[in-house]
Amino acid sequence: WRAQYSSKPELPKTVTINSKTYPVEPEWYNVSSTILNLTSRKLHLQKDHPVSITRQIIESVFPSPTYLSYNNLDPVVSTHENFDSLGFPPNHPGRAKTDTYYINSKTLLRTHTSAHEAALFAAAKSPGYLISADVYRRDEIDKSHYPVFHQMEGARVWDRNLVPGGDIVKAVYKDLESLPKHDMIIEDPNPPFHAERNPLQSSHTAEEAKAVAAHLKRSLELMVAEIFKRVKESHARAGVKMKQDDAERPLKVRWVEAYFPFTSPSWELEVWYQDEWLEILGCGVTQQHILDDAGVPSQIGWAFGVGLERIAMLLFQIPDIRLFWSRDQRFLGQFAGVGDDLGKLRPFVGFSKHPACYKDVSFWLPGHGGAGAAGGRGGEGEWHENDLMEVVRDVAGDVVEDVVLMDSFVHPKTGRRIEDGDVLGVGAVVLISGETVCVVDAQPPGRLGPDCASKTWG
Ligand code: FA5
Ligand code: MG
Fold first, then answer.
1. Nearest residue by C-alpha to atom 9 in ligand 1
2. Closest ligand 1 atom to Cα of 111
3. Where are the alpha helices (DSSP H) in 89-205?
4. Domains of the chain, CATH where assigned
5. How large is the ipTM?
6. Could you report the per-residue pLDDT of 401-429, keeping only the tens digit for each?
């Protein structure tokens, strides 16, 4: 027994992910089979899945052909793509085996969508792009963290060789002017860059960085405005009250200085929601070395990365990140059709995290009537199924989801109920969900009689 449970499971020599096979190095390999199984789920592409709906809403704010979408990039990338190309120093903690899922020393499951920046800047198919993808991080387990989640990356560049007169600043402000306005309250207390905290890159003029940052911030504010417009609409549609502050005031957001190896200056965008600041995304002016290495040194631009589950939790009021992985129709069924018609978006209605528990209950009825009284809808003194409903509701409250009368039975020979000991059975299925112990004392006074014993269900 000891030998069996204390020895390490034998490692595979290779691992196949999305039909590509990679060699495993035992000293690096740390991908559990649970994680491997999740690589095929691609929630961001499942029709009517809240992660996919969230992707669609964000994509609508960054339309093609300016922004091209890439939603099916392989989750297996090189350490170069995930870290080196982006300027992560060799000792960055994110590279540790404790934080990142490795297949071998050079191959890993991407920890963020930024792993594809270099390739897409090099492809240079459009001035902007969007990537949505599953990302993997070895992390704690709680309601807002999961080792697999989804990110959406966006980027936009301007090319000195392509804008009129080579004037990047003018071109960026012209594009900024064509963006819609919004009525949000913006807190942005910091200067556009700061020598120590949030430096300007040496290859950019202050005016260029300011212009790019202004376009970046407005674009992302519009994204947040669109999301919260949907949040408000869906609450109204469902008749669910939002916190007064969230419902009545214009949305309040703030820009906070941040640090990423691959952008400078950098920010995080936070939203004031349900009495706290909620971090939504990270972004900044793209490090010029990334564009230089990608063979497009004449370009300058911005990039952002947002957590799709975070946004989806707001949009649908989903309380736990683990729910996104559910295959339960009580979860998935609530979003049916929303992918085709966002006008159907409604807040999620919670259900127990435990599977439903069915109780099949049969009981004896006192019989006053004779044949024809079946179904429990007789006259004075007869039993009615609503009597049972009352008992169940009284004892178990809303924990019980459904009580169904399945069958009733009158003895064919006697046609009577109790006088001769014949049985009239009434079966009820009581669906109990939730953690509460349900105690049904099925004894409405003077109705069900002594034959119907008290029951305790756990
Ligand atoms: C990044 O991953 C950067 N690549 C983002 C970026 C892209 C910055 C381009 C600049 C330019 P960060 O680790 O902070 O950054 O994650 C970005 C977003 O992903 C967070 O704001 C959050 O919304 C979401 N996120 C991060 N960790 C988790 C997690 N464990 N579970 C769910 N969402 C998460
Ligand atoms: Mg962060």
1. 304
2. 2
3. 117-123, 168-177
4. 41-75+110-344 (3.30.930.10), 357-457 (3.30.70)
5. 0.97
6. 677 766 666 666 765 443 222 222 343 44
